[in-house]
Design brief:
Layout lengths: L2 H15 L4 H17 L1 H20 L5 H7 L3 H16 L7 E8 L2 E9 L2 E6 L4 H12 L3 E5 L5 H16 L9 E4 L2 H9 L6 E5 L2 H9 L13 E5 L5 H13 L8 E7 L5 H10 L3 E3 L13 E7 L2 H11 L4 E5 L3 H10 L4 E4 L18 E3 L7 E3 L5 E8 L5 H5 L8 E2 L2
Helix pairs in contact: 2-5, 2-7, 3-7, 5-6, 6-7, 10-11
Length: about 425
């Protein structure tokens, strides 16, 4: 099908889903979860086909090992994916929430209410569970979505989406074409030009993908190009806590965008050698003179640096970091507060692993991505990040002329 027609269908679907009930949205979500669970062996089989083909792509150097790892869909990821869908169904509806109620004058009341963004264009690499996450978030936030996955996960993507749309077809009164998928590079080019119908592009993949998209579209882009995360071990840090937190942040899932890439250590931290030795025992390769402090390894590789104090640590992070997630390990509350106030990142943590930067862990049910933007959404983007707002004004025949002439006066009384 022509991409413009797909985009037009998505726009029409977005106008229809904007007004459906919470009950219908939740019914659709639970139906999707049930159908994917019932057909999960079909999904696993499709994923095996993709993994087999992806091995050759890794050998040819066309995709990285970390991309290959994200491609794999196992029982644990399937469990989390299904739970994520069901969790979204249990969350409050983010649409038509009153964000402000202000009486401008008697019988003239202004409402600021949440509403859908419209049509989302999602471009992602590997991670086939993204389809279920984003489809579910789109449904609950009343947006339509056009998905474009990478070639390395095409069989898994097609299988999951076919199950999702089969489930939606069986939900009475649910609009058609809310969730659509495209496959070719030409479709991506068309998507990036389609500012008439698409309201927001969300890329999920490596920094080269994100940078390419940002440089080639007029449509607003929500996402992050790099995940260069830091942990600063302060002078007063507990050694056992530092070992545990840094090890988790680097090894729990090394290819994740919220894995730590640089370790900063206070020059007076007496257990530095113990910390570094423990990290090496966890098979972490340590680099003290990296080619760049702004490098995302996506592997069990960790650059480290000694700094004089918390101020130097903050300066280093704000210079080389990507504004994603950074953490301080310390017993000094004053230093912790300074760190969290001055580090210019979407997530700033105190005595916790950077791996907590995740929509599921934040209780968002799932996430559409992580944003380092300073626009309407920042950090893990869940339901609220897929909404915008509109102003509704309810009057009784008032005209501006009466206020411009001074005959009437605004009293601007907040009612909530």
């Amino acid at each position: 099908m022509d991409f413009i027609q797909i985009a037009k269908d998505a726009k029409e679907a977005s106008l229809k889903i904007a007004d459906i009930s919470t009950e219908l949205k939740n019914k659709a979500l639970l139906k999707i979860a049930d159908e994917i669970e019932a057909d999960k062996e079909k999904v696993f089989e499709a994923n095996k086909q993709d993994l087999k083909a992806a091995e050759e792509l890794v050998n040819k150097g066309e995709i990285t090992k970390s991309t290959f790892n994200r491609l794999k869909l196992d029982e644990n990821k399937m469990r989390d994916m299904l739970q994520g869908i069901r969790d979204i169904a249990s969350l409050d509806d983010p649409i038509n929430k009153k964000l402000l109620v202000r009486e401008l004058d008697t019988d003239l009341t202004l409402y600021k209410v949440s509403c859908p963004i419209g049509v989302l264009g999602i471009i992602f690499e590997a991670r086939p569970d993204v389809i279920a996450q984003i489809s579910s978030l789109a449904i609950k936030s009343a947006n339509a979505v056009i998905l474009k996955g990478g070639k390395e996960s095409i069989n898994t993507n097609k299988t999951i989406l076919s199950i999702i749309n089969k489930a939606l077809d069986e939900v009475e009164s649910f609009p058609k074409n809310v969730i659509q998928q495209v496959y070719s590079r030409d479709d991506v080019a068309q998507m990036l030009k389609c500012d008439k119908y698409i309201n927001l592009i969300i890329p999920r993949g490596g920094n080269s993908l994100v940078k390419f998209i940002k440089e080639n579209t007029k449509i607003p882009v929500l996402g992050h190009a790099d995940g260069i995360c830091h942990i600063f071990v302060d002078e007063t840090a507990d050694i056992d806590m530092a070992i545990k937190v840094v090890t988790d942040a680097k090894t729990q899932y090394p290819s994740a965008c919220n894995a730590v890439e640089t370790l900063l250590i206070h020059e007076n931290f007496s257990k530095k050698d113990n910390l570094l030795a423990s990290l090496q025992l966890s098979e972490i390769q340590l680099i003290d003179k990296p080619e760049s402090w702004a490098h995302e390894y996506g592997d069990k590789i960790l650059s480290f640096k000694t700094v004089k104090n918390v101020d130097e640590a903050i300066e280093h992070i704000n210079t080389y970091g990507s504004g994603h997630t950074d953490s301080i390990i310390t017993k000094n509350i004053e230093n912790a507060e300074k760190f969290m106030n001055k580090v210019d990142s979407a997530g700033v943590y105190f005595n916790a692993s950077t791996r907590f930067a995740d929509g599921f862990r934040y209780g968002f049910g799932a996430e559409v991505g992580i944003s380092t933007n300073k626009t309407h959404a920042r950090g893990p983007v869940g339901l609220e990040g897929l909404t915008i707002y509109k102003y509704k004004l309810i009057g009784n025949g008032q005209i501006v002329g009466d206020y411009a002439s001074g005959e009437k006066q605004f009293h601007h009384k907040d009612l909530m």
